[in-house]
Amino acid sequence: MICYEAFAKLRLAQFFPPGAEIARLEGWEFMGRVWVGEAIGFTEFLRLRDDPEITRSVALDLADLKPATAAVILSEMEIPVSKGMSMPMARSSLQCVPIADKRFRDDRHTFDFEIGRAEKFDISCTFLDDGGLVYVVVMRHDYMMTSRVV
Question: Which of 29, 80, 134, 136 is at 20 to 30 A from 40, Cα to Cα?
Answer without folding.
Answer: 80
